[in-house]
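Supplementary Methods, section 5.1.

A reviewer requested that the exact input to the structure prediction be made available. We therefore reproduce it here, unchanged from the version used in the analyses.
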Amino acid sequence: MLATGEAQPTPEADIYALGASLRISATGWRAVEYPDDAPRPEQRQAVASGNRRPGKVHGELGELIDAMLSPAPEGRPTIYEVGKALS
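The structure derived from this sequence is encoded cell-by-cell as follows.
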C-alpha cells in the first residue's frame, strides 16, 4: 500500500477497519495517532508503522479489538470469529 498508494481490499483489511471503528466508537480516539489534518499518505504511513495511540478497551471487547488490529493480517480473526465473539 505504501509503495503504490493503493490499498488492496481483503477480508483481513476489512477486519482491521472494523476493529478500528469499534475502537474509536468505544474510546472516542483513533487507534493510530496522526494529526487530524494529516494528508492520506501520512495517515497510511502512521498505520503501517504501527504508531498506536496509548490506551485500550478493557475486557473481552478490548481483546477482540486488539486481535482485529493485529499488525499481521494472518493474526486477525475471521469475520465469523468476530461475529461469534460479538453475539
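DSSP finds four helices and no strands in the chain. These observations are discussed further in the main text.
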